[in-house]
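Lecture 7, part 2: worked example. A protein chain together with magnesium ion.
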Amino acid sequence: MRPEILYPFFADTISLPGVGGRIATLLEKIIGRRVLDLFWHLPVDIIDRSASPALTDITYDQIVTVEVTIDDHDIPPRGSKRPYRVWCHDDTGKLQLIFFHVKGDYIQRQLPEGELRLISGRVEVYNSQLQMTHPDYMLLPEQRGQIPGVEPVYPLTAGISGKVMAKIVRGALDRLVDLPEWQDAPLLKREGWPSWIEAMKNAHQPESPADLLAASLARTRLAYDEFLANQLALEIMRRQNQKKKGRSLIAKGPLKQQLLDNLPYQLTGAQVRSGAEIEQDLAQPFAMMRLLQGDVGSGKTVVALLAMLVAVGNGVQAAMIAPTEILARQHYAGLCQMTTGMEVRVAILTGRDKGKARALLLDDLQAGKIDILVGTHALFQKDVHYHDLGFAVIDEQHRFGVEQRMALSAKGRPGTTMDVLAMTATPIPRTLTLTAYGDMDVSQLTEKPPGRKAIDTRVVPLNRLDDVVQGIRRAVDAGTRAFWICPLVEESEVLDLAAAEERFRHLEQIFGPRVGLVHGKMKAKEKDAVMDHFVRGEISVLVATTVVEVGVDVPEASIMVIEHAERFGLSQLHQLRGRVGRGMEKSTCLLLYGALKGEAAKARLKIMRETDDGFLIAEEDLRLRGAGELLGTRQSGMPDFRVASIEEHGPLIAMARDDARLILEKDPDLNSDRGRALRVLLYLFERDEGVKYLTSG
Ligand code: ADP
Ligand code: MG
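Predicted complex, written out as structure tokens:
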């Protein structure tokens, strides 16, 4: 249960002064729905209004606060586009105030001729005249106190002005309350860190540019809080996993050799190594929690199968869960093929299986007539009972929440924890492994199966679309298959879909019935049907939204077109490109770009052209996103941090990990005073999944 003290933080922003339905909706899009989300929305700049030069001394554009006498008003005639101008002066020079779209006599009332006014805003020097467009403040000289010396500047959301945003965040900060200190007093003292509430206030009220730096004391403290919450949560889960006994599954019997004999290839060194690491874990009497990390096409499936066969050889059932129906079917087909002629019964269960067939399958499962069950979330539905499930493989593990992992574990033998092998195709930069997978051991497939040809990657402007289509047409006529991925439009599925449908209709005019379309809104059955047509070659061009991102294997496809590639994150581009280059043919990836706004977008496409190394790409992705790009975080499965920055605060992660271990060793259920404060921390950063496993004293 969330501590009461945090309730106000989790209230909707609409409860804040000045936030109505329209603004709340705008905020939700970019920042979030709750007051708490505004806490983490930190200023990126400051406006310093303390400069009060004489007008004659102003020689460059700057923000000033000046006291001037108001002179003439130059009022434009009704309907004119000309701005409204007001002249004013001090003892040394003149200044022109400029207003657009003035309605009524507002300016006359604000700036009566002959009176003194305090004006603050950005002065521009134009033709050696001073101009200020729409001053930020126009006050009486005695109201100087109303102008803050330094104002925070927040990252903006379309439709909300800087002034309004600052006011909204101020409103949110009024809800701040002091929280019990969760950090160790000696640590705070050593680092010179302020308390949480002070850190929040300082971070939002920067007084100099130095206060905006990630290295400022306030931001560093907040970052450490966040890493500590992250590491504590992971450590709680890890301890939870270790608490329960696992079972020792020892590799034996003929299955492994039979599989190796079945394979049309030799395992790579990395596959052999990872397989051995997994076997070793399985043999231990504790539960395994291992991550198998390997780029797309690195051959994770066969490693998973080797591990599942260890379970089967011990008379124990294994399950393999995939995030989508398509992937589950593909795994099923792959496993069936690899186990041809072996005494291993493989079955599949997804949301699509219903009625009698499903009932029969569940009976077989419970009777132990199925050795390996592949499927989607359906594998841990309530009425699915295993005979003796002892091992689970989770493919694309970042698509599953902790809850789901737990639900699957609950299907194991009571009193023991199941061995789990998680797999991901998302290479994670080394710095991130601790924060993302601190609760797991990691095996890596760093080497690809031999014989893969490099993918020829080209960056092409969208205005050459017609040439691209013609090129694909020639290739398709020669028997090639192509993926055509449609752009990501602002995280909106509806718009994604519209764009994909439009491209589909366009390509249909050229390719006729040889074009298919798949998108996330389709029913699983329809999606599979289209995929099937593509796999069998009845369709040559598959237009898709990013649903094909993970796992789908069509070796005959050798062209990947990604439209508006500049809108995708690096890791995602890499994943998509990995869909081709799986067959014998030489493959091509065409990155079509629209407008290349910003250096980061250019840099991303350049890296794609230059390298095919997933780990390198992940490092670069991180570096570029550090430069303010946030594309693709969702998809990449990297943990989201609200204040902490992996690049800037990275060294704190290991410190937080050690701290978390020490804390839980001394106070495993977080019941001491500090422990209770740490529970608040976990809720504050929404890393509270594990709290329910703690016993409260
Ligand atoms: P991943 O799931 O890691 O993306 P897969 O397990 O789907 O990769 O394997 C990709 C392809 O590589 C499959 O067609 C598989 O048969 C093949 N493959 C796997 N291991 C090897 C190997 N050692 N040598 C040659 N081909 C391999
Ligand atoms: Mg795979």
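The chain has 24 helices and 21 strands. Residues 318 and 662 are 35 Å apart (CA to CA). Keep this in mind for problem set question 3.
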